[in-house]
Structures are given as structure tokens and as C-alpha cells.
Amino acid sequence: MTIGAVLFAAGAIIWAVSKLGLPLGKLPGDIAWETRNAKVYFPLATMLAVSVVLTVILNIVAQIGRK
Predict the structure, then answer these.
(1) What does the pLDDT look like over 20-29, one tens digit per residue?
(2) How far apart are alpha carbons 23 and 49 in whole angstroms?
(3) Domain ranges of the chain
(4) Considering the entire predicted model, what is its pTM?
(5) How far is it, in rounded angstroms, from Cα 20 to Cα 18?
């Protein structure tokens, strides 16, 4: 049930971010390559941005939890 709750929360967050109009997935540095038969997409800049934000948030939560 925990894994389901985490996946549900992640989906809800992704849905909410898409409704805010943030350019996640369309940042400079995201690589998109398309041919007639295939589409390849590497959201490098988006992954880095999300990683930095989550790291900051989790560090803040950890600091609060230690007090």
C-alpha cells in the first residue's frame, strides 16, 4: 500500500505541475530526437532541476526532523 500511495502522490504532483504551466520537459538541455519510426526523448535539464529542488526540500525536512 505504501508503494501505491507513493506512486499516487507522484502522479498527483506531476499532474499539478503540468497544470501550472511550468516548462518542465521543455527546458533547454532536454534532448529530443525524432525519425520516421522512432522518437527518443532525454529530459536531462528537467531531471537536474527536479533533483536540485527535491534535494533542497528533503534536506530542509531532515533538518526539521532532527530538532
Answers:
(1) 887 777 889 9
(2) 11
(3) 23-67
(4) 0.64
(5) 5
